[in-house]
Structure formats: structure tokens, C-alpha cells
Amino acid sequence: MMDSKKKCNVLMVDQGLSFGGALVVLLSLAKSLPDNFHPVVVTAIKENPEKWIDAGDIKVISCSPTFNYLDYFRVSHKISSIRNKVVRKILIYALSLYSTCKNLSYVTRLMRVIRDNDIDVVHANNSVYVLMAAALTRKPCVWHIHGVVESPLSFLEKLFSPSVKLFLAISGFVSNSAVKNKYPADRLKVIENPVDPAALDWSMDESQQQSVKSQFKLSDNNFVVSIFGRIIPWKGQLELIEAIAKVAEKWPEVRLLIVGDASEGFSKAYNEKIKHRVEVLGIEENIIWAGFQKDVRPFYAISDLVVHASIDPEPFGLVIIEAMASGCPVIVSNLGAAPELVEDGVDGYVINPKVTDELSKGIMTLIESPELRKSFAEKGRHKVNQRFHPQSYALRMAEEYSFIVGKGGEAE
Fold it and tell me: Is pTM, for the whole model, over 0.85?
């Protein structure tokens, strides 16, 4: 193992084009590492990253792929409509080759960042191009698996995988999906995401809460149900809208606070679909659009309940532990990793968000049960402090970095 006092430079790279959970986790880790670790964060957000993230003293570099995942998605979506299977397969291979060639300049830029900052270990969020840069500069790599694994390692990933000293899964659900797709189990570990340090030991006084409430025309009579995250189909905002419509029949003072926006191009149509459905249901007064918020803490503070409604398997569910850390009771989806975070009926409800009656019933039960909300909130906050504390996470990752660098410091 590396000397515990020896300086270690860590490059952390995220390819998300907008603010998301993977980037939040990297920044939380960067802020919480011991003093002898020096992180450099690379984000693909092209505009001023400070608009989206609070990096503090962490060095942040904006560097994005020439041909990003949205570009790939748009082209592959068109290819998928071609009926001839052979032609589809050939075009997908051609698209993969094209995207690799287009992104060689991105790999080169990352290699320059590695050399200029004397990086010891590279921490990559699901990116073969970051892996390539690590391998070509002979630096060991941590491959952080933030999503559900749906296919085996690609040819390029296998080619450069000897540089990966640790495949890091964010949940048991993600780990199982990786094992099923033949990821190397001997290099695979589960280390659950931490809560954002800023969410801990923070509170608003009554006057501050009233100020935020007045901004969105909320009164003390309103029961505020909140959903946080990008407005994209699998996050389940539309399903929650349907449930709120049922709740509003009995509790007209209920308000749904939607925190987030359609920040990626393919989700704008979904945003409009939600707004149209709100009009059809006649619940415009019950819906509040807060948009993207750089600091979500005030919105947790004014929430009576936070709902996580993902209709596809959730790899983790960062907003769940953020809500719990903030003292909010939660209702979460039973799809994916969320049931690993919340024990049904103990520190929250675990429901099927696709079943409107189940979701609306859970919300109404908590509206009617202040003591149950309090119990969920207290137990949830205790769990976060015991299991998801950022300092514990950072120390665990520091040990992994030290072990990796101590084994030789260069990729095989």
C-alpha cells in the first residue's frame, strides 16, 4: 500500500452533459478526501461549470467529447428504425468506429491533463475514452459503474481493461448486472454513493422557509410533495402527476414541487407531454415548476414528502439519501437499487410507481399520518449518518487509491 502521507493526484472524469448524480458523487468525494490527496475534476459541461456546480477549491476543467452520447443516441435511434437486420448491424459498427475516431482528440486532451497535473490514478465515470487515456499514459484506473450494465465489455473496453484496477459498482443491483454481463468479479466491488456533504448538518429557520414558500406561492395549508431530478421519461414525473391528480380529489391543498429541468435535448418533448397532461387533468394549481436549482437544500427544507418515482430500474437514487439526510420522509420506487436504501414501512415506503393507486395511496397515508412521517424522517436521517456519510466514503476510496498506486502506480 502507498504511504498514507504520500501525495496522490487523482483525476476524476465525468461525461455528463448536464448536472447529474454521477458528477455530484465525484465532487462529494473530491471535497472529502484526506489532505494528501489532490483531486482534479473534468466535466463535459461546456458552459461555465460554476453555473451548475459548487466545486469550492477543487480544480475543475471543462472538456467534452467531440461526438458525445447524445450525438450517438440520435444517430443510433435512426439506425434502429431500419428494418434490415444486417444493414442495422453494419451501420452500428460503422457508428462505433466513427465515434471512436471523432473522439481521439478528446482522448489526447485527457492525456495532456494527466501529464500536466502529474496524475497518479484516474477515476472514470463509465467512459471508454477516459480508460483509453489512462491506458495510453500508463496510469491505473478506477472504472465507476453508475448505470445498470446491459451488455458485456466492448472490444475497446476489453482491450484497455488491464488498466482498470477496480470496477466500482454503486449498488448491489448494479454489481449483479455487471456480473451477469461477465465483468471481472475479482476486480469488482460495491461501494455505495455518499450523500452530498452540504446536505448534512444544515437547516433553515422559519423566516427563511417562509421566504422560499412565498417565492412559489405556497401557504402553510399546503402539503408539499417534491420530486427531484432531470425531467426525463424514466424518472417517472408523468406517473407522479397521475397520482397527484387522485390525491388532489381528496386533498386539494396538495402541491407537487418539480425540481429539475429538461436539460438534455431528447427530454424536451417529455416535458411538454407532462404539461399537456397537467392541463387535461385540470391540476395546474397543484403543480409547481421550480426548474433547475444549484442548491436544492431549501427545497428539501420546505418539502413534507419526497417521492422517487423511477419507472425503470434505478442504479442507486442519490436524491433518496439526500432527502433522508434533510429529514424528509420518502416514498421510493421498487425498481432497481432503491429498496437497498429504504426498508419498506420502517424508514419510508417502497412502491410500484407504475401503479397509480399504489402511489397515490402511499402519499395520502403520509398526509394523514404526521407521526409516521416523523418516524420515517428520524430513522432515515439516522441511517444516512451511519451508512452514507461522505467522510466514511472518502476514507474508503482513499484506501482504494492508495492500494492501487502502491501496487506499482502504472497500468499493466
Answer: yes
